[in-house]
Specification:
Layout (H helix, E strand, L loop, with lengths): L1 H15 L9 E8 L5 H6 L1 E8 L6 E6 L4 H11 L8 H11 L5 H20 L23
Antiparallel strand pairs: 1-2, 2-3
Helix pairs in contact: 4-5
């Protein structure tokens, strides 16, 4: 059992050496119905898109989606990370149309548009501050609020 103890200690030590977070990001989720008959639709019924966004700049720091293949997920991530969700939205959609030719193309674009609207309402609405907490909830729920 000493090997197990050493492995646990090594893991704990590596966790304490991780770099601290240097900026605050926000998670946004969006969903759209998938076309019938594709693998992702059989698995999930809808496509889920999750974006990690820097609220100060709108930069998409990371992205993921519930597509069935790792290649489709990789291409999606490559097309949108590093872009700005607000300023580059038209170019993102154009690139998805030009370079992503999977059956879920329209669903991905619809889910991204839902995220774009959430981002605009959350980060660009001057009447709503980024410091609102759980006590400021208006009692409504929106899709994609889970992490």
């Amino acid at each position: 059992m000493p090997e197990f103890k050493e492995a646990i200690e090594g893991f704990v030590n590596s966790m304490s050496k991780e770099k601290p977070v240097t900026r605050r990001t926000m998670f946004f989720g969006g969903y759209a119905k998938l076309p019938t008959g594709i693998t992702a639709e059989e698995l999930y019924k809808v496509v889920g898109v999750g974006l990690e966004i820097d609220p100060a700049t709108g930069e998409i720091v990371d992205a993921d989606c519930t597509l069935a293949t790792s290649t489709a997920k990789k291409v999606f991530r490559q097309l949108i990370t590093g872009r700005r969700i607000d300023a580059d939205m038209r170019a993102i959609v154009d690139d998805l149309r030009a370079y992503y030719h999977g059956a879920a193309q329209k669903a991905l674009i619809t889910a991204l548009r839902a995220i774009h609207e959430k981002y605009r309402a959350t980060c660009l609405d001057p009447t709503r501050g980024l410091t609102e907490g759980p006590d400021d909830d208006d009692g409504t729920t929106g899709e994609g609020n889970e992490g």
